[in-house]
């Protein structure tokens, strides 16, 4: 199907996504998944597909037809692979993450609920309360006026990135490698705002709230409300951001205001930020408790049933790397190849980068850049020579400045978090 033929449905969604959704799926509300294709929606979908859908009565509500299942239905996103569209979750193929700074159109999307309908910067307010001397209510204008505005390249990676490779599998979004990005975020330091509010000595943990709605539509429930220990919150690299790559934040990435807490699971970086409360206990908001964003305290064999009290909260993300060029599966008619990508570590820096073209028997040192600023991903490159035609894989391995390297196998855990095994791509050298 050509781009041209896809236009009708993207247009349809771009104008009024909620109405488009109601028409396409016949849902009265976002929470109602029982709709079916009908009338105008069916017609629009038929036009977009270039052919009528024969068994449309069987087509489950909330699904996007596979032929249209790229993020072209999300205005401003390009080439992402949609894993789920209610809530919207979309990852970026590795070769589309080749840029130094991830373009807005290629930044993955991980929603736990329904984004707010009103994301206007004008009138947006965030509160800071709890164990503070002076509770604050700040507009974006206040933030810009009262605090130093800084721009930083910061990696956001979902805690579940790489889950698709778990065996036995883990439930949740089946992210492969693309739930990670490094955009340039502009905003004010979270630490400066907390200092202005006056952090009291009882405050040990933050609690973050956003304006999104729980999938059930129940306003009393939150889709996600996480927090971090006060020591991590005071790290000067955390931002309350109102800008992305020199422009506005994309609606699906938390417009008009979000937290960026780099190095820790993406879930700590609350989107559509409305409130930060300082608490005198570990925050117990939505997806802070039970087994959410937690792993067993000790290594377990794949498939082990671990009691919930043996889980602990994930803090820093592990060292990891991506091969962003060439694309996986490339066929080459020559024996040499330039390989490149990025590497990052949730705690500190990447100090060494290696690649292998012989399944890890030997490793070649890659050329590795320093990060543009703390928590920016580091770019690397290497040139490989293949001895003769045939099938090869390129494996990439980063080592952090604590001497910890990416492992060959997955550190299996029940919920499928923190998979940092080598990124591999296939290369065939032809005669
Ligand atoms: N309000 C709100 N913030 C949120 C989420 C959410 O569902 N609601 N998802 C979190 C998760 S799990 C991740 S990985 C990151 C993803 O950020 P992105 O969608 O901008 O890529 O946002 C986090 N912030
Ligand atoms: Mo996430």
TrEMBL record:
Transmembrane segments: 35-55
Alphabetically ordered keywords of this record: Membrane, Metal-binding, Molybdenum, Oxidoreductase, Transmembrane, Transmembrane helix
Segments forming domain Moybdenum cofactor oxidoreductase dimerisation: 313-429
Cofactor names: Mo-molybdopterin
Classification via Pfam families: Mo-co_dimer, Oxidored_molyb
Annotated ranges, domain Oxidoreductase molybdopterin-binding: 118-285
CDD domains, sorted: SO_family_Moco_dimer
NCBIfam families: TAT_signal_seq
PANTHER family, A to Z: SULFITE OXIDASE, MITOCHONDRIAL (PTHR19372:SF7), SULFITE REDUCTASE (PTHR19372)
Name by which UniProt lists this protein: Molybdopterin containing oxidoreductase
Organism from which the protein derives: Iodidimonas muriae
């Amino acid at each position: 199907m050509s781009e041209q033929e896809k236009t009708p449905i993207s247009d349809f969604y771009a104008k009024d996504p909620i109405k488009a959704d109601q028409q396409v799926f016949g849902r009265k509300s976002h929470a109602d998944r029982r709709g079916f294709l009908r009338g105008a929606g069916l017609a629009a979908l038929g036009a977009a597909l270039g052919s009528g859908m024969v068994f449309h009565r069987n087509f489950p509500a909330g699904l996007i037809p596979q032929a249209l299942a790229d993020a072209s239905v999300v205005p401003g996103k390009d080439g992402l692979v949609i894993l789920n569209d209610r809530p919207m979750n979309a990852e970026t193929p590795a070769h589309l993450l080749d840029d130094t700074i991830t373009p807005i159109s290629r930044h993955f999307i991980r929603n736990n609920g329904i984004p707010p309908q009103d994301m206007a910067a004008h009138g947006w307010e965030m509160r800071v309360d709890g164990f503070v001397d002076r509770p604050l209510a700040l507009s974006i204008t206040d933030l810009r006026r009262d605090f130093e505005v800084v721009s930083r390249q910061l990696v956001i990676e979902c805690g579940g990135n790489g889950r698709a490779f778990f065996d036995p599998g883990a439930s949740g979004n089946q992210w492969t490698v693309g739930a990670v990005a490094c955009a340039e975020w502009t905003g004010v330091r979270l630490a400066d705002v907390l200092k202005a509010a006056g952090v009291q000595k009882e405050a040990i943990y933050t609690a973050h709230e956003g304006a999104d709605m729980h999938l059930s539509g129940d306003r009393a429930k939150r889709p996600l409300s996480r927090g971090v220990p006060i020591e991590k919150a005071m790290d000067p690299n955390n931002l309350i951001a109102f800008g992305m790559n020199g422009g506005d934040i994309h609606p699906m990435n938390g417009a008009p205001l979000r937290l960026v807490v780099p190095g820790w699971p993406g879930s700590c970086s609350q989107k559509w930020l409305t409130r930060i409360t300082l608490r005198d206990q570990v925050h117990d908001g939505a997806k802070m408790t039970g087994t959410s964003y937690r792993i067993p305290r000790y290594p377990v064999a794949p498939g082990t049933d671990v009691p919930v009290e043996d889980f602990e909260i994930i803090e820093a993300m592990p060292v990891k790397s991506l091969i962003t060029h060439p694309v996986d599966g490339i066929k080459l008619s020559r024996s040499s190849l330039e390989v490149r990508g990025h590497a990052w570590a949730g705690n500190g820096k990447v100090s060494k980068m290696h690649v292998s073209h012989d399944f890890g028997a030997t490793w070649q040192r890659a050329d590795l850049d320093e990060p543009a600023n703390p928590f920016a991903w580091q770019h690397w490159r290497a040139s490989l020579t293949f001895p003769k035609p045939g099938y090869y894989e390129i494996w990439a391995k980063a080592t952090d400045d604590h001497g910890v390297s990416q492992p060959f196998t997955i550190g299996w855990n029940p919920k499928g978090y923190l998979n940092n095994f080598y990124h591999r791509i296939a290369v065939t050298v032809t005669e």
